[in-house]
Specification:
It contains 18 helices and 27 strands. It is α/β, with parallel strands linked by helices. The structure holds alpha-D-glucose-1-phosphate-6-vanadate and cobalt (II) ion.
Length: 543
């Protein structure tokens, strides 16, 4: 079929946020909407002629149709080759791996990640560059700029391709290669971790439950945990990806993965519990009777990484997003390795990883990963935990207690106020911004401000600056409050309030987080007047 050019006019609001462009599914399904954005991506990277692209998604509603649209457009734009996951499925970390493995020029991942899926829920599209990582801000801004002036897109008048069987198909002059979404990823995991030791752990009676939340990790988890590592059949639950994630909210945290959380806190708990999100880049870690906060998990993984073969030489440095607790900083300081604090979103880790400055990265939002790919990686985190458990032969709770005894405990919690009227949420942040210079020395509910700023990041590798990344308030007792607005929502604004307090080695590490954090929560309210601005007397989601 010959390429055809279709006239179009711009849609407002095609600006990628923290992680790609996320909108209501019906917005994406409007005629021309997906096409405009896709062509804007191709144009912004200098065209697709002769280039190689990786393509897949998390299987949510509209995934299959959108893949066909993008394939036709890639072919009409002259792509040499498109590597597609069978059935249109690829987890985000698997896509990142494939881009690197094939030396592709980039990849498109269809996902709204932890947002619910379905015709009335959310859809999204992420573009990753040749390093396998999320496009940096300069690229996402160029895509947005292009979307505002676009007047035509290219496509083919051709039938849908069969993506259900492996192998190569021809689409115009473009070769489309349909690959097993799991195989290369599982092989990478086998290289990084001591599968023999983990197999021996399971053979010795160790039990686990992994909740795939009816999202993309089901097939990956079954293959790796049950088939290759010998976890008991049925250890992986909700393993079949569904277009609406079974009506659930595929966000692995104590609220949305309640069933797993309750199991792990009850009398029937297995030794280990974990879950992942829509596109497979997040993780939740639990032991019997214990929930490991993502910030703590990052610190423990960094401290113990050398127990895994892939990291036996030690780590070069650690990076965390600014709102993530400072638990990892204590590990970096003790090991004498570099520590970097970046804005929220994995795209900011790419340069540090490419430059070899850091090995392990993490975010408080349940994202952890390493230099093996350029995305956060849910199953990677679960496997590193399993490798550590296989080497140390101690329960998760004992590992946490020992970690806190050595470094102290950073009590941590995040309060989310969702779907707040955008002007009210923005007014709250604007007020704080205006107050910043006067805050040091002031007291709020008994806590004295030591310093406060609107976080700006200066990338040490490419010299770029990203400003207005969140309000940071440090108190003299070492506590911290961070406030920022989410960049992944599709309805109104979501205010995130991040609360943290350090209990040094020797202090009480056995408190409930809400008890330990009560003074910080009170100070955050006194400082930011959250109730007044949001009209809510409590957060919608506490993690
Ligand atoms: C959230 C998290 C952030 C994460 C991002 C994408 O962003 O806070 O840490 O990188 O989601 O994760 P925001 O702007 O809503 O706070 V994923 O797994 O949804 O791609
Ligand atoms: Co995700």
């Amino acid at each position: 079929p010959a390429p055809i050019t279709v006239a179009t006019s711009p849609f407002q609001g095609q600006r990628p946020g923290t992680s790609g462009l996320r909108k209501k599914t019906r917005v994406f399904m409007q005629p021309g909407y997906l096409e405009n954005f896709t062509q804007s991506v191709f144009d912004a990277i200098g065209g697709l002629a002769g280039r190689v692209l990786v393509l897949g998604g998390d299987g949510r509603f509209f995934n299959a149709a959108a893949i066909q649209v993008i394939l036709r457009m890639a072919a009409a734009n002259g792509a040499a080759r498109v590597i597609v996951g069978q059935g249109g499925i690829l987890s985000t970390p698997a896509a990142s791996n494939l881009i690197r493995l094939h030396g592709a020029d980039g990849g498109i991942i269809l996902s709204a990640s932890h947002n619910p899926g379905g015709e009335d829920q959310d859809f999204g599209m992420k573009f990753n560059g040749p390093n396998g990582g999320p496009a940096p801000e300069a690229v996402t801004e160029a895509i947005h700029a292009r979307s505002l002036e676009i007047d035509a897109y290219r496509t083919l008048d051709s039938a849908d391709l069969d993506l259900s069987t492996l192998g190569c198909r021809q689409l115009g002059a473009t070769e489309v290669e349909i690959i097993d979404p799991v195989a290369d990823y599982a092989a990478l995991m086998e290289r990084l971790f001591d599968f023999d030791a983990i197999r021996a752990l399971f053979a010795g009676g160790f039990t686990m439950r992994f909740d795939a939340m009816h999202a993309v990790t089901g097939p990956y988890a079954r293959e790796i945990f049950e088939r290759r590592l010998g976890a008991a059949p049925g250890s992986v639950v909700n393993a079949v990806p569904l277009p609406d994630f079974g009506g659930g909210h595929p966000d692995p945290n104590p609220v949305w993965a309640r069933e797993l959380f309750d199991l792990m806190m009850g009398a029937e708990a297995p030794d280990f519990g974990a879950a992942s999100d829509g596109d497979g880049d997040r993780n939740m870690i639990m032991g019997r009777g214990v929930y490991v906060t993502p910030s703590d998990s990052l610190a423990v993984l960094a401290a113990n990484a050398a127990l895994a073969p892939g990291y036996a030489a030690g780590i070069r440095g650690i990076a965390r997003s600014m709102p993530t607790s400072r638990a990892a900083d204590r590990v970096a300081a003790a090991r004498g390795v570099g520590m970097y604090e970046t804005p929220t979103g994995w795209k900011f880790f790419g340069n540090l990883l490419d430059a070899g400055r850091v090995t392990i990265c993490g975010e408080e939002s349940a994202g952890t990963g390493s230099d093996h790919v350029r995305e956060k990686d849910g199953l990677w985190a679960v496997l590193l935990w399993l490798n550590i458990l296989a080497a140390r032969r101690e329960p998760v709770a004992a590992i946490m207690a020992a970690h806190w005894a050595e470094y102290g405990r950073d009590y941590y919690s995040r309060h989310d106020y969702e779907a707040v009227a955008a002007d009210r949420a923005e007014a709250l942040i604007a007020r704080l911004r205006a107050l910043l210079p006067a805050l040091p020395g002031q007291e709020f509910a008994g806590l004295r401000v030591e310093s406060a700023d609107d976080f700006a990041y200066h990338d040490p590798v490419d010299g770029s600056t990203s400003a207005h990344q969140g309000i940071r308030v440090m108190f003299t007792d070492g506590s911290r409050v961070v406030l920022r607005l989410s960049g992944t929502g599709t309805e109104g604004a979501t205010l995130r309030v991040y609360l943290e307090r350090h209990a040094a080695p020797g202090e009480d590490h056995g408190l409930a987080p809400e008890t330990a954090l009560a003074p910080v929560i009170a100070a955050a309210e006194a400082l930011a007047l959250i109730r007044g601005h949001t009209g809510r007397d409590r957060p919608d989601v506490t993690t």
